[in-house]
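Service request form, structural biology core

Requester: graduate student, group of Dr. S.
Request type: structure prediction, single chain
Budget code: on file
Notes: please return the result as structure tokens.

Sequence provided:
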Amino acid sequence: KLFFTDYGNAAKVERCDMDGMNRTWIVDSKIEQPTALALDLINKYVYWLDIYLESVEVVDYQGRRRQTITKGRQIRHLCGLAVFENYLYTINSDNFSILRINRYNGTDVQALARLDNAKEIRVYQKRTQAAVRSHACEADPYGMPGGCSHVCLLSTSHKARTCRCRTGFILGSDGRSCK
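Core staff response, request fulfilled:
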């Protein structure tokens, strides 16, 4: 799945399949400017910052069990969001400090370090990486991903795929080759 935020005419948090199909709103009320998103892949939670409502919130992948982690004026200065173990990590854009927020007790906030001009944060750790399994976009015997001549996108599951073409090409009637 692909998760993303939108704060155009109607602010929301959404998810869809990797090929863009099955687009679903998971949060569409009491939300104004969701600017950063982080996923807890193990427990299947979506965290986001709303800088207008000055809050950090969480829901499960279906948009249920919504909770506010923390709220206050300091939120409007946050950018980027990552989750690892019991904490959320973000950047304070006023002083470029890395903040650690306990995701179970939002009042436990600590400044860890400072990085000039930091705008985004990511956690890279082996335990955060999903195990790779066989999937529909693996290279075929001719080296084409999922048998697609240009781009292979996972669809409704790791066993299904959709072929797409680069700009200027159209998908052939076989659903795999681009012309």
